[in-house]
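This entry is listed below:
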Amino acid sequence: MKLSRKEWLMLAVLVFGAFVTVLNQTLVTPALPSIMVEMAVDQSTAQWLTTGFTLVNAIMIPITAFLQDRFSTRKLFVFSMATFAVGTLMAGVGPNFPVLLGGRLVQAMGAGILMPVTMTVLMLVFPVDRRGSAMGIFGLVIAFAPAIGPTVAGFVIDQADWHILFYIIFALSLVIIAASLFLVDNKAPANKGDSVLDPLSLVLSTLGFGLMLYGFSALGSAGLTLVPVATTAVGIVGVVWFFIRQTRLPHPMLRVDVLKNRRFLIGTIIGMLVQGALLAAGILMPIYVQSLHGLSATVSGLVLMPGAILMGVMNPIAGKWFDRHGPRRMAIVGMSLLTLTTFAFAILNLTSSIIYLTIVYTVRMFSMALVNMPITTWGMNALDNKVMNHGTSVNNTLRQVAGSLGTAIIIAVSTQVQNFATPGLGAAQGTMLGINAAFLVCTLLCLVGLVMTIMFVKDKPGEEAAVDEGGTRKSLLTSIMKTDVYSLSQEATVEEAMRLFVEKNISAAPIVDASGEPVGFISDGDILKRLSPRRSSFTDPIVLINRTVPDEEGYDEKLAKVMQMRASGIGAASPICVSVHANLTDVCRVLAENHLKKVPVLEEGHIVGIINRSDITQYSMAAYLAGNPDRAVYCGDGPSGQHECVEEKQCDCGCEEGK
């Protein structure tokens, strides 16, 4: 399925909106020193401009799934972008710190809605076999914003003042809002009315996630003191209560049951581990560069920039690889590199060079690109489109939790080791050991992610959808497809394939491995190609030499040779399959775009049927006639040559059957 020009423009608007919100988050940190001086606040107070934004942003994400079930795409996008713009203007013109902080919190409300909406639209607009590329483009934008944000902010602050940053973001927001009014489809929600805003769920979500994330942040800085521990405990209780309540409501605010799907759950867990590892380096690297090497914040940013840029560039490439080959090999390589480079940080010392640090960090970000978006897409692809908005909200929420929890653990480990080692080894060596210990913990988390990737992430072409409402898609496809599937082993010869074709009156068969998973597909057309005369074109020297040798081999001789070949050697090596939960539109697209007559149907990686063009044609005609009974009436000679009438009550030909 090719996207229309309007769809591409719509996606450009959505992704640019996400870019602006992410860019906004990276602009504030460099401005904090200037804000502290102008507003006369200390560092702990000023830090709430980032902490508060993160908390409100996370609180809004679970609510977004409900909003997407109630409002159209355009209305929700415009509302979120307008809310973000209002908050930006408040922050820009704010005469004092409370107004500035209020503006940041309003910004966070809009940003918290916008990101899941953008991800949901990307997953729904693009077909399953192109979602990797779409999410790769999304990842490019999301990675590019943090790469340039601090540099842009530093330049603007040096040339003017921090207020200009918010004015620039405000102007960009207005442009996006104007474009969205014309380019974003006003698509009505598919499940309108299915979600109900339960007041208690809203309270539990807001307080639970808010207190838990704040508690994690406080634990990292204040340690195991009463207030952070109590806040975290209350927040966790609220979140658990919220999750339990969602499973019992007939129309939950957030469909947490998407986590019952193993593939989505595994993808989310791996994503959480990667998120924690990503934030760890972002926190610890500036400490190492600035505190231990005595270099400036600018140098610290330059150390991180190549990795961020490479990650952005690699995201679309990784997305295309995912669409063509699946996630397994790429994710295993990525998690392996991530584990190794994280361990390399765990053995840093005071004499490690900045060049070495930059190279390791850049390779580490390269590995992130091989894992982050591909695994997210792999997990999201397991969900039915009807619950995609809930899937994106659950995924984003748990990533926020992982980021906050990971930050708290890393800071706590680093601080405790530093405090223990400093009295005997000195401040510098104590700080170094604290950083080493924190990265060692990250290495263990990455190792867990690597093991999970090896064990669970597969390249199965069509795995079971998670929440298929009532199994409607499955029952439809199973009622159309042929369930008497005949397959060949990997060792089967062409002779065995031909015998199967003749005995079962079929024209093609899948080739399966010992576990029953498809690894190839052979048709009578593949065999005929081997028996036909060679037709070569002058494309390279080898073909030219081959072309000069006459094809004088007789048909019987050629047939005898072909019969002894392995079926897997002349058939398709990478079979194109569809999921048993796929809708007929997707099946038609797969058949048409790949010029196929039939494809295997998979459930949990195993073949459960074969569907071909004639199956769909017969079903489509029957469905059309069922919806148009007038066209189902005909009167004339039937297959037996006898006069037949269908739908007697509507036949007006005057024959006996019609009376």
